[in-house]
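Hey L., structure's done. Input below.
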Amino acid sequence: MSEVNLMANSKRKYQSFVSIPKGITDKPSCNWSAFPIQLSGVSLVLPSKSGNKLLIIRNGESGGRDKPSPTKLEVWSSAQLLKEIVIPASVHGPVYNDGW
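Output:
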């Protein structure tokens, strides 16, 4: 999903989750997450093979040499943050996808 942010003259992007039960029924009941995840500052969104979990990688904003920002790894399940791992810039730089 996206919406226009008029004050910043930009777009806000969000991701929402829906749970669709397995099995064939005439009218499956879908459960939507209560709150979407804002995708600002996101470098990569990687779903698990099962589709039950999501890894979101947020590379820190460039704060200059005096104040490098950390990279954050977030593990999500059904619009709930399960774990956040903060990696200081002194340990590892930004994470990018090179297509491999």
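Residues 63 and 73 are 19 Å apart (CA to CA). Residues 41-100 form one domain.

-- N.
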